[in-house]
Every structure is written in C-alpha cells, then in structure tokens.
Amino acid sequence: MKKIILFSIMTCIVCGLASFVFCSFSSSNPDSNADDTKEELVFQTGFEGTTRVIPIEDENDDIIGFEPGLTKSSWDELKTNGGMNLVFVNYTGGDSTQRTARIIPEPGNSKNHVLRFQVFDSWGASERQNKARVQVEFHEITPGFKEFYQSMRVFLHEDFNALKSFPKRIGWLTISEFWNNEWWFPEEKNGFRVTLGVGKPAGETSDLFFILNAEDAGMKEVWNGDNFDVKVPIGKWFTMDYYFKEGNDKTGRFYMTITPEGGQKQVVFDIHNFTHFTKDPAPDGVTGYNPMKLYTSREVVAFMKNQGKSLQIYWDDLKLWKNKRPE
Questions:
Q1: Which structural domains are found in the chain, ordered by start?
Q2: Is the peptide bond before 30 cis (omega within 30 degrees of 0)?
Q3: Which parts of the chain fold into alpha helices (H)?
Q4: 186 pLDDT exceeds 60?
C-alpha cells in the first residue's frame, strides 16, 4: 500500500512538472495562436455583382451591394455584422468636377470591375485648408482591431509619372491611414495615427517611393519608416499586403509587402514600434481606418492639373482578416 501511495505522489510531481514546462513554453511564444486570436475573414470584395457607389449627400457617397457566390462580400453586412458602424466614401467637400469614386470596367479588361479614385482639382476642405481627398471610411469599429491583415490589388495610373518631376519633396500623398482612436473627437485624448503614402525624397527628378510614419495626438511624430529603396510601381498592377498589430515599442508591428504583377514579393516595411498612443494606459485597438485613400495638397494637384494630368488610383480584390499574420 505504501508503494502505491509513493508511486501516485511521484506521478503527480512529474505530470505537474511536465505541465509547467509545456505551459511556460507555450506562453513564451508571442506569435502562438490562442483560441481568442483565430484567423477570421471579415470582408472581401472584387467590386463585382451588385456592388455600386451611390450618392447620399454632398460630401459623401455610400457603397452597397454584394457578389453572389463570394462569402463576406456584402457591404451592408459589413456595416451591421462586421463591427463597423460607419462605412462610406468621404470627400470632405468638393463636387464631381473635382473628384470622383466610381466602379468602372478595368481599362484593358472590360470583364473585370475596379474602384477608381480620381482627383482633377483641389477644394476648400477640412481644417480650413484647400486640398484634395477621396477615401473609403471604416469607422466606429467595435471592438477595435487589435490585430488585422489586409490584401488589395492597386494600380497607379500612368499620369503618376508626372510627379517624378515635381519641383519639391513630396511628403504628403496618402493612400491608406490607420487610427488607434481618432484624435479629432474632443473627448479623445489618446489619438494615434499611422499614415501610408507615396512620396519623393527631394526636389530633383526622381522615382516615387512608399512613405510611412506614426504620430501621437497633436501630430507629434513617434517614428518614421520611409523606404527609398523600393520603387512604387506605376502603370502596373501590384498586390499590397499589410499587417497591423497593436502594441508598444517592443510589441507593436506594421508590416507591408508589394507583389508586382508577374514579379516577386518585396518587403517594404517591417516596423516594430508603437502602434497606439505612447501614453495610453489601456489601448483599445484600431477604431477607424481608410483602406483606400487619395489625399494630398493643393500644390500637388495644381502641378498635375497644369500638365493636363489627374491623380488616379484603381483598387481591386480587397480582403480583410482579423488576427491573420504574415507568412
């Protein structure tokens, strides 16, 4: 009887030690997928089926419809069941002679439809500035995204080549923007923004590159990740993937790749730094962002207009996941 009791005690000690070692190993892996971080497709669209942009008021358009046979493609369900209470196209002023967002047949491939942003001129917009903005808004995300991944095909019209000779540095031509709490709300003290754009490093003629920075409320820059090694493809489709993880200067991450059509994947950014307000005691995720955006200054738009050009970006095959991570 004593031998049986002793054996049972030793078995419990060994099993307990094994469980402790296993749990310690699992919790030490920051990229391990726990049950509450299972990859989930939130939304996808190819701008086909009944998908269309319709006017709702002077400064905004709505996006409605879905694609038969494509799961999670309904814009209406995204608003009701996707946790995004506000989804629309925002211009912050102007009219259709100055900017448009339209679903059109892809140039050179009429069987495929794409969303085209086009800017012809600037206008008096927000912050009492004359500028240009076309963007899709995903706002009032509840709960905020702690970790998400987006993939999208992008095409910058050949007119973008004219910007290579813009006489100044281009540091403001935004194509996507992420808000870990929108700082324009009076009650919001913990605003934080990550801005992804297209830029040019100096006044002399040069290629265009991807630019990226992050700011605390008050537009106080926290970090800058501009990459002047990877050229922005112009006149060619490319797939742009990015990954956002909320965290501090050690746990936060913004990762982005591009894959030009027929080419190899290139890592453009892999930033490990703050992705929330640096002094936020309880960050609550990305509560709003612009998955597609064309936002720039009066000077850039005027330069293009004087050359008989316009700013045009085509978007296609948007896919959004929560908790998906880079391969």
A1: 43-153+234-322 (2.60.120)
A2: no
A3: 2-27, 75-81, 298-306
A4: yes
